[in-house]
Amino acid sequence: MYLRTLAILPLMIFYLLFGSTLSYAVSEEEKTFLNMYFTEDELQVVSATRSLKSIARVAENMEVVTKADIELMNAHTVAEALYNVTGVEMLNFVGPGSQGLAQIHDSDYTRVAALFDGVPLQSSGNGVALGILPVQMIEKIEIIKGPASSTWGSSFGGVINIITKSVRPGDHIGGSLYSSGGEHNTSDLRAETYGRKGNVGVYLFGGTLNSEGLVNRHEFWHDNLFSKITIDTGEKSKIDLSFMYHKSDARQVDYLVWGTDAYDAYILEHIYGRAAFSAGLSPEVDLDISAWMFRQHDVVYENTVSSDQRLWDGFSNFNKYGLSGSVTWRTGAHTVVAGTDLLNGRLELSTLPDDKMTQRKYGLFINDTIKINSVSITPGLRYDNTNIGGDIISPSLGLTWIATKDLLVRLLVARGFHDPLLWYYFDSPTVGFVGNPGIKPEKIWSYQAGAETNVADIFKLKLTLFLHDIDNIITDKDLGGPTTVENGGRAKTIGGELELASNNYKGFTLKSGINYERRKLLDFSDVRSFDTSNLYGFNATLAYNGEKGLKAILKGHYMWWNEPAFWEAKYNGFVVDFNAAKEIFRSKSTTLEAFFTAHNIFNAFSYSDILSKNPRRWSEAGLRYRF
Asked: Are 139 and 116 in contact (CB under 8 A)?
């Protein structure tokens, strides 16, 4: 393992110290390739190196979902926005308002880092319920498929970075109102407004999402509030102040299918705040500093289905605070980004009433994008330290080559890791768990190769092949009654993705993708999984954007979960959704649009366990007013 680290480090040091100093401008080949298949929001990404970068210079396997994509599909939550992304598998998704846990390349959802403007959203269980995150305030979502630990730290399976809207210089006062209603009394009401006066810009969003339950009376209500204030403090400096509040009450799991008169439900209250300062210190140097807090107060309870009588309840309080800072330096052919992340967290669980678990971690990272004509080389290195998990070093080395105006090649080798759940380190007698203070992070070496090619100016093909070599897997251990966990397993995942995106033809665009992942457990077994599993999926979308205010999209999704009988899963259907929107009124400064959405038109089954059945066919309609 460390031989591979040592093999990469000299290459990184060589390029950082002696890489070419030739100045480089965007070539005509790069411009041609980018403008043909990428929108303005997709051209520049920040998540790969934490500095704006051309997507043609990114060695990672990246996908971008823009606010235009989200609006066209009429998504209510982030889980829906990512449902048709090739290589992303959405677990426990029973429609908008449900959990929606994303795994990437068959990695567990706890191994995927979800970020909100760069702030980690992980709960005490290391997961993020994307089905409760609203989409109205989102500018775009950047997805890295594969480990990104040399930039972000704990991100074994990948990164989902949600980037929010901002008010920019020159923006006038505006906003939108959104209202939809559907079957099972499902409704979504949203309002946003934004404006600028002088050097201050303000963005506000509020919304409520409610339903009596699309599956087995999984009723829920969600209230959301988000605000961002942008203050220009100089010609090339600004301060962003962000705040988000979420509160929800949701019935999630119904045990009647097992003959048990009980259901589980959750009351969640999440508060997020962030203050960020960015400045261009010179034409070559940028500075970014942010401080943030994220408080999660979750109550879980179990009632009887027949009489709604309370059986038990518990709580989890997880409070996190952090600081991040980075400097970007552009000199010659180099773009060097160096920075640090600090986090301090405290967890309280009702199952451990006398213990307050603390988490302290810091990371130091550096990467360099070296542009030499049509080749970009990106070495990266990060050091992480936690008070309970110890030290870990994560190197990476990526390369992109714009071989011709029609061909882009990507290569990447990276080491990643995943922090164990915080409560793994502590005894929990009430649930029969014995903590293991010696548990270590799970680790992965990832090797990826890919190519993108333009075919006759008609469509683009993107092929990605990968090998993930996984070690230190955390497994359960039976102690003759109580249980614990240990680092006891290894696994290997190989697979690939093939994606197609057509050029616009008379308003029509086609996108499709297939993914295949073969995971083999090498030295351990788990009754909840096959020793060798083969997971594959297919996504396709046909979109239309006409000149007379008509927009429509037809989406299809199939996933072969390859789960053992233990989960009672069912996935023999192709989930097809349709959305159409038509502008029905326009004035100089306002528009009114009507839309209709049909979900799961053919009543397909696609779920990975019996407690998380996907919704059957349902429909909704509504209005969107912009001013």
From this structure: no
Provide the percentage of residues in the chain whose pLDDT is more than 70.
93
Question: Residue 149 gets which letter from DSSP?
Answer: H
336, part of any domain? yes
Radius of gyration (Cα) for the chain, nearest Å? 24
Range of the domain at 6: 2-490
Query: Residue 81 belongs to a domain with what CATH number?
Result: 2.40.170.20
CA distance 134 to 209: 9
Give CA–CA dist 282/298, Å, rounded: 45
Q: Average pLDDT for residues 228-245, to the nearest whole number?
A: 97
The torsion region of residue 194 among left (phi > 0), alpha (psi -120 to 50) and beta comes to: beta
What is the model's pTM? 0.93
Q: Would the pLDDT of 168 be above 80?
A: yes
Q: What single letter denotes the amino acid at residue 228?
A: K
Write the pLDDT tens digit of every residue in 470-482. 999 999 998 988 9
How far is 461 from 609, CA to CA, in rounded Å? 33
| Residue 362 within a domain | yes
Among 60, 28, 29, residue whose Cα is nearest residue 45? 60
Closest CA to 185 of 143, 138, 218: 218
Amino acid at 235: E
Domain count, the chain: 1
Q: How far apart are CA 403 and CA 44, in angstroms?
A: 20
Decide if 589 is inside a domain. Answer: no
What 3-state class would DSSP assign to 194?
Answer: strand
Strand pairing class (237-254; 186-197)? unpaired
**Is residue 21 in some structural domain?**
yes
| pLDDT tens digits for range 475-530 | 999 898 899 999 988 999 999 999 999 999 999 999 999 999 999 998 777 777 88
The Cα 542–Cα 502 span in angstroms is: 10
Query: Where is average pLDDT lowest: 186-200, 217-231, 424-438?
Result: 424-438
**pLDDT class of 54 with cuts at 50, 70, 90:** very high
- Report d(CA 533, CA 527) in Å as an integer: 13
- Buried-state track 57-67, b at ≥16 Cβ within 10 A, e below 16: bbbbbbbbbbb
Question: Residue 42 — very low, low, confident or very high, per pLDDT cuts 50/70/90?
Answer: low
Give the C-alpha distances (Å, rounded to integers) separating 213 from 62, 265, 301, 509, 595.
34, 13, 18, 34, 22
